[in-house]
Amino acid sequence: MKPIKNDLKDYCNWQRKFALFPHRCAISNRIIWLEYAQCAEPSWIVLGRDDKIFKFKPIWHDEFEHLTWAITNA
Length: 74
Fold this sequence. Notes:
Structural class: alpha+beta
Number of strands: 7
Strand order of the largest sheet: 1-4-7
Distance between the termini: 21 Å
């Protein structure tokens, strides 16, 4: 049986997007604005109390920091 992973980043779809509005990098806390960056949309949602659906916010990574993060976590 596979172990259960609780890391949100394991269940994300990564895409290269243009940051038209300012966002914070999840790795270095740097502001990403008016440039291309890696954006992760979580591929699952959580049902909370009273059957409310909670969708997680997108995760933004700078392209170079995302590359080093992907290599070290491979």
